Amino acid sequence: MRKRKVNVAVVGVTGAVGQEMLQVLEKRRFPINQLLPLASKRSAGKRVRFKGKNLTIRELTRSSFNEIDFALFSAGGDISRKFAPLAVKAGAVVVDNSSAFRMDKNVPLIVPEINGADTQKHNGIIANPNCTTAITLMALYPLHKAFGVKRIFASTYQAVSGSGAQGIAELEAQVKALASGRKIKKAVYPHQIAFNALPHVDSFLKNGYTKEEMKLENEGRKIMHHTRFKASSTCVRIPVYRAHSVAVNAEFTKLVSVSKARRAIKNAPGIDLMDDVKNDLYPLALNMAEKDNCAVGRIRTDCAMKNGLSFWVVGDQILKGAALNAVQIAELIATEI
């Protein structure tokens, strides 16, 4: 039971995730006394809508967090590294959506449905996982509890909104240009994204994987408390506006069955079973956009590995992959204040 209303700051409020955080806070009736919208100097003075009122955006400064209980950050790693410690020093609990603190051993990395109890070990900062990691683990973790996952091979199909508003704008502009016979322009992506698939999300590492691809293994180990978990991923950007899709081939230590897998999914929070191929029922990015829950389908015995399952999971990366997960984390902490 929540004891009192709290003061909440949203850092990066003008971004896609920041805007979504406002909607989630309002929709879930988070116990807010005062909401402080924060952004860069160029956005200061603009207005945002919250609970029927227009709130003036203030510039993020070193003194922004006086009397703030919660600070939800979604403004990039550099901003988080600079200002999150200041927020904690001022007495706030920080929920950070960047990658700045995710692998810090002193910072819990949380998906509430999986390891919500880890919030009890925080020192002022709690990290939100990568969007693809969160969506994948929503389906994988119930199966891990049932069968004990050893490793996965994953291919992601990631929406352009994962690149922010500029990703959406670039796709829209390229589609219009191609439809009218004009030359396309590209700035966000190294190649045309319209009617294409780019096997390039984030920057490449020395091992040939991208940073995005390694997050699933590294963050998955931390969230599931499974240090031997292995994940080989190929992350692909596709011309979809919203919601990420992931094809997963998973190997387990115990004997698997499709019926038990479906039962595990049905009994898990935050994940819906959409698995009726006879009626063409399986999760689609179009249908999962703006939905709180993730969904899984195409569950089948993997024919290429022992004790394996193949499945398809889809989730809104702006919600469960970012804003919703952050607010859920704050809800866990709010019960203790």
Ranges where pLDDT stays below 50 over 5 or more residues in a row are none
Mean pLDDT: 96
Shape: globular
Query: What structural class do helix, strand and pairing data support?
Result: alpha/beta
The description of the largest β-sheet is:
6 strands, parallel
Q: Report the CATH architecture of the largest domain.
A: 2-Layer Sandwich
CATH fold-level label of the largest domain: Dihydrodipicolinate Reductase, domain 2
How many structurally independent domains?
2
β-sheet strand percentage:
15-25%
CATH class of the largest domain: Alpha Beta
Query: What is the helix/strand order?
Result: EHEEEEEHEHEHEHHEEHEHEEH
**Extended strand count:** 14
CATH superfamily caption of the largest domain:
Dihydrodipicolinate Reductase, domain 2
Largest sheet: spatial strand order: 5-2-1-6-7-8
Head-to-tail CA distance between termini:
10 Å
Cα-based radius of gyration, to the nearest Å: 20 Å
State the share of residues found in helices, binned by percent: 25-40%
Note down, in words, how this protein is organized:
The protein has 337 residues and is α/β, with parallel strands linked by helices. The protein folds into two domains: 6-128 and 322-334, 3-Layer(aba) Sandwich (Rossmann fold); 133-317, 2-Layer Sandwich (Dihydrodipicolinate Reductase, domain 2). The protein is 31% helix and 24% strand. The chain has helices at 16-27, 77-89, 112-115, 131-147, 165-179, 211-224, 258-266, 285-288, 319-334; strands spanning 6-11, 32-39, 47-50, 53-56, 58-59, 70-73, 93-96, 125-127, 149-158, 230-237, 244-252, 271-273, 294-301, 308-315. It has a six-stranded parallel β-sheet with strand order 5-2-1-6-7-8, with helices on both faces. α8 (285-288) links the parallel β12 (271-273) and β13. α1 packs across α9, α4 packs across α6 and α4 (131-147) packs across α7 (258-266). The chain is globular and about 60 Å long. The mean pLDDT is 96.
